């Protein structure tokens, strides 16, 4: 199946992986070897599985397969329609597929030509255009374009209002703090803060881990090299290292803080993670269960110490920086 790929956990099911870089270097370029060795894998075991790499969840459905096939068909056309800006929304002069249109908008957002909120608005507009098309085809009911746009934007505003979650209703792990500074744990408890810095060019970066007590005293910490294919991969790797850090120190009921809300949410829920970090999140969840770890989101201002340790500014830290902090 097009798009199917292995999700590596323990590597047992994939013979190509078993020979590691020695065999890889015989058939791949240096860049390809680096890409393969950067694939996030589980360090706690688990069976390898097949995922569909053309969707973030790794799950294949007939609907997603159809959308991908139709998108490939649209993109394979030798002539692409010209474009203009109508009603402040990136809009092709000719529409052959609302899906193709939405993907064009996504491309423009990725290039920085449009604001990020254009895409969800475009999705709503695509849906109302589709409904209007069906009304025309099956009921001979024609709707003016400005009415369709108005209804779509109205539905979008209702959706935003309905999905706004007050802070009091957020899970405790994601509820924003009343302070933008680091908040110490309860008396007699410890807290771990972790963060990552990552550069897309070399796909490398640094991770920083800080362990402090209820008085804010530095108890221990780490600064270490990481290899990752994305910022999400880098952050997930650092959270896993923080869990392993707690395990190595035999810490129980310790809280781990990070400023990536998506990863904190995935760490405390059973939601299916993006396939690129699925193996890492599986390790995090298992470690959290075995070691009694908890997770909490904090804004960047509450994670400044770990961020600094992971940043290039901390490159001059010596081996005894924990004993003699800067």
From TrEMBL:
What GO molecular-function term can you cite, just one?
Answer: RNA-DNA hybrid ribonuclease activity
Pfam families annotated for this entry?
RVT_3
Organism ancestry: Eukaryota, Viridiplantae, Streptophyta, Embryophyta, Tracheophyta
- In the UniProt record, the signal sequence range is none
Superkingdom per UniProt: Eukaryota
Q: Which parts of the sequence belong to the RNase H type-1 domain?
A: 193-311
Please give the SUPFAM superfamilies that the UniProt record associates with this protein. Answer: Ribonuclease H-like
Instruction: State the InterPro entries in the record.
Output: RNase_H-like_dom_plant, RNase_H-like_EbsB-rel, RNaseH-like_sf, RNaseH_domain, RNaseH_sf
- Which protein are we looking at? RNase H type-1 domain-containing protein
